[in-house]
Amino acid sequence: MSQNPSPCSSMRDQQWDTDVDVIVLGAGAGGMTAALVAATQGMKTLLIEKSGTVGGTTAYSSGTTWIPNNPHMHHMGMVDDARKAAQYLDALVGNRADPALRQAFITDGPKMVAYLERHTEVRFKAYPAMPDYRHDIPGAGTGGRPMEPLPFDGRLLGRNFNLLRPPIPELTILGGMMLTRGEAALLLRGFKSLDALRLGIRLLARHGMDRLRYRRGTRLVLGNALAARLYKSLLDSHVDIRLGARTLRLIMVSGSVAGIEVMLGDKLSRIRARRGVILAGGGFPASQAMREQYLPSPVAQYTPACPDSTGETIHLALDAGAAMGKGSAENALWFPSSIAQRNDQSTAVYPHIVLDRPKPGLIAVDSAGRRFVNEAVSYHEFTRAMYKAGTDGCAIPAILICDRRFLWKYGLGMIRPHALSIRRHIKNGYLLPAPTLEGLADKLGISSITLKETVERYNGFSRTGHDEDFNKGNTPYERANGDPQHKPNPCLGEISKAPFYAVKLYPTPLGTSLGLAINTQAQVLDHAGKPLPGLYACGNDADSIFGGEYPGAGAQIGPAMTYGYLSAMHIVNN
């Protein structure tokens, strides 16, 4: 529990330094959406962020936003998606979360998108062919529900550009140039494609000009584009944004959350929120203490999430009488990540999402040298399988195995396709090489006989196109992330061209799914299940509306923004 001062009211508590209508704590996608909607509805709004930048984990992410039945689906002729999405989520989630919460998301998510695109700089387009993650469940979509933010010119932020959290360095090239997934795929064609050549020239010219004036590229895509669009809209709406501010407690008056006590620089301020306080601190993926308290064993030691998402805002609410939700089996949303040390001695946590695991010519094995999972399943399900693997063949860490041909064509983790040198990755121990599978097994400390048998069996499946053990490449989601040029199965390919390589993967929470109990208006609930007056939560500060399940790409950002919108609208209308 937090060691913050008591939140109980007193005469001193009612002496305010200043007041606003709405206070939002946290500047990720959910918090910025909440602040933006409140401001555009005429509320005097204050956005508090404890770090020195805006964007949170959103700025690190792909920016994909999962909204069933969104307006851009309609433009593509997709209809009746709300009913299908409800069928999908009901079957996926069941009784692990209140069905009213996901129904509110389905109903109001499209309204949130339309509102932002009508009143702000936020712009999306739907991915027409990005299937949902669980095609074993009725109602799963084949595309349209995930949206990507349109690219944004960071120069429009002016001097505030440096206050936008930069992306993870390993997801950029040439000193901070960002690419979308589609652009990266096109550029890999190189001189074989005139379109790729034109794109490369255009992007390089833009990036070269940027580097004359900026520390990184200003052509923003993915999560950086979404964060920048929200940030630019907040600036245009004259929202008061305070960075580097530490909130000490929620101030209670007559049983309601009336404001906050916060350190603004070296000054202690007591700020009244006339209409409400919205918590959007990003959950607790970066808190080792809370990971040890709530996450499964062995407890994750790293996270690719924002390092400032350490659960303080959740503790503020608990101290004020809020209740936690019921959580899930793991209380986290997972990436399998490889770990390395950067040149500046900082730790790189690289999420293995879709760039290597689903491609043909790679397997994942446990400590006994056996496959334990369909390598092409979603990152969340892959990590779940790591935890579920038997004790005789522990899969933490899991080991990715590939050959020379795969490494050159698709890359592996931090090693990009067509890398001219891999010496640094071998020297620092990130990449383990060997001229034979037996030699690789010896380096890994696993049975060479078992590993060789595993690879030979997998190679047989690759020739027939059917994975008899795990059905890799059998669903639309898996095939979409494989190599469409590879036959007969885009996700199955032989491992046979020496030398052979291995990289180790560890479970890392990209977000936490355990959070504060809320209702369909994003109001935080007390231990009696009643709204705690004046207090709201969205994003990973709130308990997962999907009960810890992960339905599709962007299934964190979509609900975060929707419940940020709902919290602000409830404040405005009440």
Walk me through this protein's architecture.
By secondary structure, the chain is an alpha+beta fold. The protein folds into three domains: 12-148 and 224-330 and 513-573, FAD/NAD(P)-binding domain; 179-216, no CATH class; 332-509, Alpha-Beta Complex (Flavocytochrome C3, Chain A, domain 1). 31% of the residues lie in helices and 20% in strands. It has 16 helices and 19 strands. The strands form four sheets. Strands 1, 2, 8, 9, 10, 11, 18 and 19 form an eight-stranded mixed sheet that branches. Strands 12, 13, 14, 15, 16 and 17 form a six-stranded antiparallel sheet that branches. Strands 3-5-4 form a three-stranded antiparallel sheet. A hairpin with a 2-residue loop joins strand 9 (245-253) and strand 10 (256-264). The radius of gyration is 24 Å and the shape is globular. The two termini are 32 Å apart.
Uncertain ranges: 1-13
Helical percentage: 25-40%
Assigned CATH class of the largest domain: Alpha Beta
| Chain-averaged pLDDT | 94
Number of helices: 16
Number of strands: 19
What's the CATH H-level superfamily name of the largest domain? FAD/NAD(P)-binding domain
The end-to-end span amounts to 32 Å
**Into how many domains do the coordinates divide?**
3
Question: Could you say which structural class the secondary elements and strand pairing correspond to?
Answer: alpha+beta
Shape: globular
